[in-house]
Amino acid sequence: MPAEVDRLAVRGLTAGYGGIQAIREVGLRVGAGEAVALLGRNGAGKTTTLMAIAGALPRRAGEVLVDGSPAGARSFQVSRQGVALVPQGRRIFPNLTVQENLALGDRGGDLELIHTLFPVLRERAAAKGSALSGGEQQMLAVGRALMTRPRVLLMDEPSEGLAPQVVRLIGELIGRLRRERDLSILIAEQNLALALEVADRVYVLERGEIVHEADAAGFRDDRETQRRFLGV
Predict the structure, then answer these.
(1) How many other CB atoms are there within 10 angstroms of residue 155's CB atom?
(2) 51-102 pLDDT, tens digit each
(3) Is the full-model pTM beyond 0.85?
(4) What residues are paired with 203 via a beta bridge?
(5) Distance of CA 64 to CAs 4, 16, 51, 166, 225, Å?
């Protein structure tokens, strides 16, 4: 039997800003229908990693493969290969309506699915993005990404600034997308409880390098490693 190909494989990824090399030789993988958490202190390189995978930040070295095929280096190429980014801070278009925000991301997406996952987006379809609550904006950002029909969803700090009940909804959503849509998810998250709730495995970044890999259940019980790399 041939070995199963990872949905997302990142090898030797190096990227940075100007003269600063923010991440070095990052390697990770996400299987089909798997959720993987990328953990680390502030400034460890989590956002840089997701941005470089998505092609939103130039890569200085390394490659990104989706189902075994090179994803390309530009953001539009990566998107066409089935990778979608839900960026930190949501970055919706505040002066456009909910419907217009979703339409901008449309690449044959299922609007009815989005409305089923997030009924409030149907109810507020004519509202401007700026009129939404933080939780509603996060739902819109996720919905916009799903309109591209991704196979891999990159989520950068999805719980940031949200009320606990909305964070619970995000966790439930991740589980539902995996079960019902076979979606692979890479989530960079400061909320350790959420990350360990939704993830099968974790990678830990420190100073731009992967320093630890573990299954989520084992990492949940490994308080010493948590203190060492995350300070919790």
Answers:
(1) 28
(2) 999 999 999 999 999 999 999 889 999 999 999 999 988 889 899 999 999 9
(3) yes
(4) 38, 213
(5) 17, 16, 12, 32, 28
